[in-house]
Amino acid sequence: MTDWMTILEAQLSTDPPILTVEDAEKIYLQAPLSELMYAASERRKRQVPGNIVTYMIDRNINYTNICTINCNFCSFYRSPGHDEGYTQTLDQISTRIHELEELGGSRILMQGGVNPSLPFEWYTELLSELSMRHPSIALDCFSPIEIEGIAEVSGLSTIEVLSRLRESGMHGLPGGGAEMLVDSVRNGISPKKGSSENWIRVMGEAQSLGLTTSATNVFGFGENVRDRIEHMNKIRILQERSLSKDYPGFTSFISWPVMLENNAFGKLGSRRGATNLGAGSVEYLRHVSVSRLFMNNIDHIQSSWPTMGLKVAQIALTAGADDIGSTMMEENVVSASGTTKTMASISELEESILNCGFTPARRDSDYNILENLGAGEPHLEV
Ligand code: SF4
After folding, report:
1. In this structure, which of 130, 210, 289, 371 has its CB flanked by the most CB atoms within 10 Å?
2. Structural domain spans, the chain
3. The whole model's pTM is what?
4. Any idea what the Cα angle at residue 250 is, between residues 375 and 183, rounded to 5°?
């Protein structure tokens, strides 16, 4: 039986083997954190050469909080008819984008709940108008479960919905709602969200249409390490399939532990004395390191400041991550369950990168470098 050291040594060779699920599980569980981080950092240097760490100026917009899916870890949604339910108007969304433009931003990430009261035309008209008013902003919108909700309301297939949204100006489909792509875990935390296969199918359809996509992973629901690796494996398999057809695959892999403070999931877990929910910094860094080694076909691994804080996000840059995320400007979904930091300034992100010895570079949603800031002082005080 191969031990963790042999597996990591092979990963450090000039032609490393593709990490198997079994070997990934072994190093996740057994390798010392420092060894794991070193191997991941070396892999990052090979996969994304140079000393650059990227970030993006963007804004999160949560256009509606009305949702019928009722995930038990979500504190953001309100059921239809609830007093606190809202849907933003075109002008409210456009004003937010205008504020982003003033900061030099390049994209919005617009996601919400599955709101059955919004007809299909609401989405197409919104995207058409936003792309006319804000032509330089990439509109990365919705998530697979929202696409399924829109398909149900409209009577169209999910690929028809995606195709029409793309024609209306949608640039990308962010990978929200993946959580854990293991059905036994999904059934426990969000039974109405559907199978992992649905998420994979909708993302594959988006990639077949040339939409920009990212892969996410929320962990800490009480699953075991094998489940976490199985999640990564499903993403890796889809990526392989898409790239073999010359579709643009996932730009990046982004993981973070579930937040537990303000939701039914966390409260129920603590009442039952569960000690295996969420994840601390060490476990997060192990997860990031293994994801860098496992994802041989996804170039960019993102560190997560909104859930882990900027200090841990900095350490993740030495554990294989090559991107520190984005300014976000506002965050209402994850923060409703317990994070306190919902935006990062440009100078905060640049300083965090510089202080780790890397060179900050501003990117767009497709990871094109817009500006390489070189070594030295952060150049914007925002
Ligand atoms: S996580 Fe998304 S799909 Fe689930 S309840 Fe919240 S808004 Fe709805």
Report:
1. 289
2. 4-372
3. 0.93
4. 130
